[in-house]
Design brief:
Layout: H1 3-23, H2 27-30, H3 68-78, E1 90-93, E2 99-106, E3 112-119, E4 129-132, H4 133-141, H5 152-172, H6 183-193, E5 199-200, H7 209-220, E6 234-237, H8 239-248, H9 253-262, E7 277-282, E8 288-297, H10 299-302
Parallel strand pairs: 2-5
Antiparallel strand pairs: 1-2, 2-3, 3-4, 6-8, 7-8
Helix pairs in contact: 4-5
């Protein structure tokens, strides 16, 4: 009997055993009942990090210059929570303790999708997923299972949707094995919560809120009248000043104002008119007057950091 013959027989026996195991509903549970002292030895997986620097060592006199003060300012402003990736999203907790954050996004044509991300056990977040509402509702009618659907067109559409969502979730997954929910559980949890999710229907910003804020502040500080106004908690801008800032940002005034409001960066009160708020100014002789202005928050003030005319940790 040749070695090849023996190998083929072994392979055939293994295949038959696997098939037999599939026919026994409780067979896959037996391995978990084996006493710990008799369990098979698991292969040890070793992960070794390369401690070599990713950057070549440049001479000290040519090293990049960093400012701890600027970094501290940006950090304290970030701690206010206004730039949180889940700001404006509803928190959804599953029975097993897994957490999703989600909202419904509506574009200018009225088409809706569900934006969501997962919060992991260490407090970090996954990148956001965007799930088309129409496809989700169709798949939900079949309990997010394509197998067994008689009409091939619908079966294929749901199968394609489930695979696309599985791939998106897996590609963006940043947690541990314990954090893994599985895409079907994610979809079920979101679908059950859809009627209670907040709806956001304005145009999405082209840049993230934090970058947008610091770029706006940089432009405000270049406005000639910037040093004339002595306000601690916001930057007041008139129409001309706002126009200059918006132009420098590559926007028109309305686009600029919509993004400022979207990110919660405008000081608005119940008596505000549109995007303007009536604020009080002081004359040099001590008298005062009021004027409606566009007021952009000074987040440094709320973070307990003294505002300066310098860049706050961002260079453009």
């Amino acid at each position: 009997m040749t070695n090849n013959t023996i190998q083929n027989m072994v392979a055939d026996i293994n295949g038959q055993m696997a098939q037999a195991t599939d026919r026994i509903p409780w067979a896959d549970k037996l391995s978990g009942l084996v006493p710990e002292e008799e369990q098979g030895i698991k292969d040890e997986v070793t992960v070794k990090l390369d401690n070599k620097s990713l950057y070549l060592p440049v001479p000290e006199e040519e090293a990049a210059v960093s400012s701890d003060a600027e970094t501290e300012t940006a950090r304290k402003v970030r701690e206010l929570g206004i730039f949180s990736p889940v700001r404006g999203l509803a928190s959804i907790k599953s029975a097993s303790g897994k957490i999703l954050h989600a909202r419904i996004y509506e574009n200018e044509e009225g088409m809706r999708s569900i934006e969501c991300c997962q919060q992991y056990s260490d407090g970090s977040y996954s990148p956001k997923m965007k799930i088309p509402q129409a496809e989700m509702r169709m798949a939900a009618r079949y309990r997010f299972v394509s197998k067994g659907i008689e009409e091939s067109k619908i079966r294929n559409k749901i199968a394609d949707f489930l695979y696309k969502m599985y791939k998106d979730y897996s590609d963006k997954f940043r947690g541990t094995q314990d954090d893994d929910m599985g895409i079907i559980d994610v979809l079920n949890l979101l679908y059950e919560s859809m009627s209670r999710l907040p709806v956001y229907s304005e145009v999405a910003a082209e840049m993230d809120a934090e970058t947008f804020y610091w770029m706006t502040v940089e432009q405000i500080k270049s406005v000639p009248s910037f040093k004339w106004y002595d306000f601690k908690s916001y930057y007041p801008l008139d129409d001309v000043e706002l126009g200059r800032v918006a132009k420098a940002m590559g926007m028109n005034k309305l686009q600029m104002l919509k993004q400022l409001k979207q990110h919660g960066l405008l000081y608005l009160t119940p008596s505000s008119k549109g995007y303007q708020t009536n604020v009080r100014f002081k004359n040099t002789d001590g008298t005062t007057y009021t004027e409606r202005m566009y007021c952009v928050y000074k987040l440094e003030y709320f973070a307990g950091v003294e505002s300066t005319t310098e860049s706050n940790g961002y260079n453009f």
